[in-house]
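User: Run a structure prediction on this.
Assistant: Running it now.
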Amino acid sequence: MADFDLAIIGGGINGAGIARDAAGRGLKVLLVEQNDLASGTSSASTKLIHGGLRYLEQGALRLVREALAEREVLLRIAPHLVHPMRFVLPAEAAERPAWMLRLGLFLYDWIGGRRTLAPRRIVDFGRDPVGTPLKPHLSYGFEYSDCTVDDSRLVVLNAVDAAARGASIRTRTRCLRAERTSEWRLMLDARGRRDVATARVLVNAAGPWLASVAEGVLRQEPALPVRLVKGSHIVVKRMFEHDRAYILPTGDGRVVFARPFGSNFTLIGTTEEDFVGDPAVLSVEPHEIDYLCAVIGDYFRRAIHPDSVVWAFAGVRALYDDGSGSATETTREYVLTLDQEPARAPLLTVYGGKITTYRRLAEAALAKLDGILSIRRSWTARKALPGGEFAPGRDEALVAKARRTWPFLAESHARRLIAAYGTRIGLVLEGVASAADLGPRFGADLTGAEIRYLMRHEWAQTADDVLWRRTKVGLGLAGDERSAVDLFMIGALGTL
């Protein structure tokens, strides 16, 4: 008998989402990730939960409808991570007649069954603060609703819930080889420690490494052609004072977002271009930074330059190659293939996908396996992710309660903890009765107590795991403070 019903290669949003869903249906699940959870594409998104307004123009109605419906679900099950945000589209720059924009936004509001978010409206840039940072020739635009998300925390909390439901989550564990007979036999390497695991079904959810896993680990060609598409982002000091975001059409058919990021920064992206090479060796190229700076220069009074960039990051999507002429036009629909042969264990391969639709992708993956495994009814739309056991819009009440319970927390500190951990703040601050109990302080209100929680409960092992994925406080820390986090974690390993 196999050790596991389902083994998953890849600890991004698709792998973690499938692991959570499957574990909640009573399956024995193993997830292996060669690095940290969300260390690839899933931490390099624009950090939005959205339908994709431009996909509507491309005619991808099914994708947009599903994504907009999921926007409502994720608001409900992860209210600490997913938050409404208003987006402003300058009308004169959209190269579309006003009636077409109005119709598009009407459809965007309508087809997804919007229930909790504010509807579209016209904005006069001469009267509204959103017009202040824009160039004077831009006189009006359209405002609509979508949501933001902490993408890497969404991945981690899916894994946390999967583990709570019995899944085995093994980070920094590489699958060296998978032998296929009537079951899968996986040879694993966890930083030099070898292990073997068997599973009835294998899922290749390796994202940008999908083809290399197929060829190098499974010893077979991918069932479908893969197109790797790179998207890069830059972060600069805060460019505007209000809390809304901009969606900026470009002359080459792309759109670039400029959105608030934390309290002191603006996130700008993304680029889209074909990628060839090793996804593990990824950087934002100078021409990509120049491109994003130029788009901002087309719209904003204040120009930005490469030396304005305080952080840059890039990710690569493994999309199904539908033969489109450009990376921008390639489908964002997820595609699942099931390789099932007599007397050979099944293989499910995941192509594409969006952060927004990860939960539906997981349901579709398990539906593919119905009849091979004993699949119970779907459940993830009804159960909150860890920390999200409260109604949307109740964040402020949680912040106030946290400050009553731990009166030594600054308001900004309590607010950040609630945004990251929600109702799990009590677990983060377990045993903390005074400011001294928080332990060392590393800047940007990061404390020893929080790091210990992340090491104990969320698989954090390095400073990067903490500073850039479990939190984003790395933006507010100096180099010596980041080094101090690393040293603290090395010392804490022997005490956990």
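The mean pLDDT is 94.
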